[in-house]
Automatic annotation (TrEMBL):
<dbReference type="GO" id="GO:0000155">
    <property type="term" value="F:phosphorelay sensor kinase activity"/>
</dbReference>
<keyword id="KW-0597">Phosphoprotein</keyword>
<feature type="transmembrane region" description="Helical">
    <location>
        <begin position="137"/>
        <end position="160"/>
    </location>
</feature>
<keyword id="KW-0418">Kinase</keyword>
<protein>
    <recommendedName>
        <fullName>histidine kinase</fullName>
        <ecNumber>2.7.13.3</ecNumber>
    </recommendedName>
</protein>
<keyword id="KW-0812">Transmembrane</keyword>
<dbReference type="InterPro" id="IPR005467">
    <property type="entry name" value="His_kinase_dom"/>
</dbReference>
<dbReference type="GO" id="GO:0005886">
    <property type="term" value="C:plasma membrane"/>
</dbReference>
<feature type="domain" description="Histidine kinase">
    <location>
        <begin position="221"/>
        <end position="438"/>
    </location>
</feature>
<dbReference type="InterPro" id="IPR003661">
    <property type="entry name" value="HisK_dim/P_dom"/>
</dbReference>
<dbReference type="InterPro" id="IPR036890">
    <property type="entry name" value="HATPase_C_sf"/>
</dbReference>
<dbReference type="InterPro" id="IPR050428">
    <property type="entry name" value="TCS_sensor_his_kinase"/>
</dbReference>
<keyword id="KW-0902">Two-component regulatory system</keyword>
<keyword id="KW-0067">ATP-binding</keyword>
<dbReference type="InterPro" id="IPR004358">
    <property type="entry name" value="Sig_transdc_His_kin-like_C"/>
</dbReference>
<feature type="domain" description="HAMP">
    <location>
        <begin position="161"/>
        <end position="213"/>
    </location>
</feature>
<dbReference type="Pfam" id="PF00512">
    <property type="entry name" value="HisKA"/>
</dbReference>
Length: 441
């Protein structure tokens, strides 16, 4: 639930609860006030009646529908009754208020005695009139407030929305930021409550920017600094191998040395690529690319490696025009096709298929190698992870960064990589699923 809706519902609930609590308290107060007012009326009426000397006047004729009922008794004999059916006393002969039941309802009664004439005046009023008066007073007071609740809801909703507008602007600013944009957020007319949040966010952006900068500089500088000594070491190892060509033991050791140097050089190059293609730091230049042309270029660059193993590679399907970064997508395809060649035996088949399924462009690379167990599908995308470690069954050198780099490039394009078993070539099948309708032209 949103904060705006939550605050609106809470405020309406509180207003409604307070309104009904006030109505209950008002009802009680109204009943007390009504009791006092009607008791005074009963007392005044009894004093009027007791001072009447002519008991045969027309004003004392029976009135069954009157709001009051009264009786006048003298010498224990009923002289006047305002209701013709009441022949007995409507209350006890006491100078006090009491409540009695007659004529199928509850009555509030009051009596007064005039000793000089031995006369009692008893007056009664229905209690329901008091309840009706109290209810009418409460309804008159509460009804406008209840009817105004929908209007209050609209006003509260607008006021809460206005109050949360700075927070919504902050959310929009954060949403509009790109992955590599760590510049501070500046908002005009900033409220005091939001200032600590904005200050904390800007401090976090500053620390993240510094950390990313240190990481970029370290990876780039370390890889570049290692390139030169590795190149020199590679040349010297080659020259030394030529000089010691007649010693078989030395040749074996030199071969191991050259393989180690090659592996280290490969690791350095992969670290550089990983640093350049990190989605959080990479600034790619997206432009229209034809997948068929891109695949042909990558296959041509890797053809010497494929030919050296006497392998065959085929490109099937019609290419599609997509929006992407040509350099990074080329690295991704180069990693996939190169891995397919490395881990497939000599004379095997590699297939690259371009297809469109449900308006989604897919680039599929299949090989004839041993494939990967399903339990390893997620782990192979981790950095520096290799199945079997350095003792990979294929004895193919590697550092475990190729698929990690490919995954980063796929994330850069909002695409996904799907691993499975190739049905036709029985090796590994890797599908690059480009987002539907987002990059196609």
């Amino acid at each position: 639930m949103s904060i705006r809706r939550y605050l609106t519902l809470i405020l309406l609930s509180v207003i409604t609860l307070v309104t009904f609590a006030a109505a209950i308290q008002g009802y009680r107060s109204s009943m007390v006030k009504a009791t006092s007012v009607f008791d005074n009326e009963l007392r005044s009426l009894t004093h009027v009646l007791i001072n009447i000397t002519d008991l045969s006047t027309q004003s004392l004729a029976p009135q069954p529908d009157a709001a009051f009922i009264y009786q006048i008794w003298q010498h224990n004999r009923l002289i006047v009754s305002s209701h013709p059916e009441l022949k007995s006393a409507i209350s006890e002969f006491k100078n006090e208020f009491s409540e009695n039941n007659f004529l199928a309802q509850r009555w509030r009664t009051y009596g007064i005695f005039l000793g000089s004439e031995n006369k009692w005046v008893l007056v009664a009023q229905p209690l329901n009139r008091r309840f009706e008066l109290a209810e009418q007073m409460i309804l008159a007071a509460v009804t406008p407030l209840i009817l105004s609740i929908p209007l209050l809801a609209i006003i509260i909703f607008v006021l809460v929305s206005t109050g949360l507008r700075p927070l919504r602007r902050l959310s929009d600013n954060l949403r509009a930021k790109k992955a590599d944009d760590l510049t501070p957020i500046i908002q005009k007319n900033q409220q005091n409550e939001l200032s600590p949040v904005l200050e904390t966010l800007n401090q976090l952006f500053e620390r993240l920017n510094a950390a990313f900068s240190r990481e970029r500089r370290f990876a780039s500088d370390a890889a570049h600094e290692l390139r030169t000594p590795l190149s020199v070491l590679k040349i010297n190892a080659h020259n030394l191998a030529l000089e010691l060509n007649n010693n078989s033991t030395t040749n074996t050791n030199m071969q191991y040395l050259q393989q180690g140097i090659e592996r280290m050089s490969h690791v350095v190059e992969q670290i550089l690529l990983l640093n350049r293609t990190n989605p959080e730091q990479y600034q790619g230049q997206f432009k229209p690319i034809n997948t068929a042309s891109l695949c042909q270029t990558v296959i041509a660059s890797l053809f010497p490696q494929i030919e050296a193993k006497k392998q065959e590679i085929e490109l099937l399907g019609q290419g599609a025009n997509i929006q992407g970064d040509e350099f990074s997508l080329g690295i991704l395809l180069q990693n996939l096709i190169s891995n397919a060649s490395k881990y497939s035996p000599e004379g095997s088949m590699i297939r690259v298929t371009l297809k469109n399924v449900n308006n989604q462009d897919i680039i599929q690379v299949e090989d004839s190698g041993p494939g990967i167990d399903k339990t390893e599908y997620q782990r192979v995308f981790e950095r520096f992870y290799r199945i079997g470690g350095d003792r990979h069954a294929s004895n193919t050198p590697g550092c475990g960064l190729g698929l990690a780099i490919s995954k980063h490039i796929a994330e850069l394009h909002n695409a996904t990589l799907k691993l499975s078993r190739s049905e036709q070539l029985s090796g590994l099948s890797v599908e690059l699923l480009l987002p539907q309708g987002q990059f196609s032209e």
